Amino acid sequence: MRVRQFTAAAAALLLAAGLGGCSDSPAPVRPPTPTPEPVPKATASTGDVRPADRVDIADGGVLRWAVDQVPATLNVYQPAATADSALLAHALYPSLFRPDEHGRPVPDPDYLAGAESTPPGQQPQVVTYRLNPQAVWSDGTPLSVADFTAQRAALARLDPAYDAIDAIAEGADPREIKVTFRRPYAEWQSLFGPLYPAAETATAASFNRALVGGAHLTAGPYTVSQYNTEDGRVTVGRNPRWWGDRPKIDRIDFLATPPERRLDDLDQERLDIAPLTAAVDRAVPAASSGSPSAAAVPPAAAPEAAALALKWAESLPDVTVHRAAAPSLTQLTVNAARGPLTDPALRLALGRAVDRRRIAEAALGPLGLPGAPLGSHLLAGDQEGYRDNSAAASPATVAQLLDGAGWTRPNGGTRVKDGKELSLSLLVPAGSATAKRTADALTANLAESGIAVKPVTAPTDTFVKDHLAAGDFDLALFSWPAGPNPASQQRAVYAKPRPDADGAVKSGSNYARSGTEEIDRLFDRAAAELDPAARLDLLQEADVRIWQLGHSVPLYQRPDLVGVRTGVVGAGAWGFGWPRFQDIGWSG
After folding, report:
1. What's the whole-model pTM score?
2. Residue 526 pLDDT > 90
């Protein structure tokens, strides 16, 4: 599942899912090529979830689960949707497909008896869904073609994927849905996830109405029994009409708990499941007598405070800290529209100069995660089809590239061209220990090649609007969400900036402000390629071209830390997956 309003959702996730944002919940909003190497298959899950057979899970009990806030909406397609909206939607609404631990979409048998698309090359593309005959909304009404039709109509103007649909019709019986596309759409498994009842999406007024408990229909293992924004609590209980495996837990209380309170609430046994990434990453030194307040402590103290917070988390009695690589790609973005970085040769040299393994180890090692560097702009290291394409950027050394671009180093210090030193600003989210460790490692790393870097911090509330969108940076650290649909999900990040009607060039979500027609075509071809192997080849070729453009440097997957109380099973850090709520409970 993904939040469809890509620009708004991605802007919110740049920091939330990146270097120290607000939410740790799983969230759902697009030279010659070298000979491809064999594509390795994903072999190990990045998730860290305490497993248990259902027979070993007790029947009953209550779970207390920390969220950032009670979301204003449970409709993940609304601009006000948050990662917490998506988390709750997993418990309440159907998603026809769900990602496995490697980000591959797999049918959810609770909702689908089967689904298939017409073969590659056959036009038009028709996807046939066979719904689980037991699947019903909470008023007993079966899921039907009306729900699909209303949702498509509501989203067609907002999402190109839904706009690609030409018609939706009932098939051989009411449980068969046929979706015909006006143009091929390879990532069709991402559609209708979640699916909302027609009553909620049939009109603009109903679609924009906040979905907040009350009489709203649901069709998940749980249903809302309390939704209180003032008390900061959403309570869900077993759905009496649920047809699948009976949920083990009687009730889950989702409690609005700021990150700075979560460790204490775990310690005091007020929480059972608590995302801890922000609690650790944004920890501040405790004020003491004779010392400045926490607010006055300089940013340099953040890594030390984070280390103490992690030590506290690991020492909590009856609590386990689960660790995973999150579905979010942290990168160094290079502003091609500013200063010396307008030169593609310099951008290429800078990309070659970054020691990605060194950076990843500096960022992730202190959190107890492997320092695995990323070599792809589009796929995470644990996704099937991942390949490190960094070597395709250039066969030349960093020194050769910089010398060739005219940046000399006569005295072994900072490189110089036309009397000006090669000095670049690095935009970093304020208050993030992970960002500071990354920035410090990058600064030392690039200095070895004669590139001077000066980190500049910006608050999270102005990071995007006043800096990324305005182009006020040379280099910037942040993350983009990753998922099973890179052709459509990440296209906007790399799309060539184009002039508007007034002639002004608009970068949109491409904050690097570099792109080519060829890269755009490769994304478009991948989005329409129904053969999985051919689609992956196109994505690999696009990634090679992005490396050769010097657009950005992928660094690592952001860390994800979750504290889980002893005895709770089926919970932890999910990686690419998401909770199967009916299998979460207390060990018997």
Report:
1. 0.89
2. yes
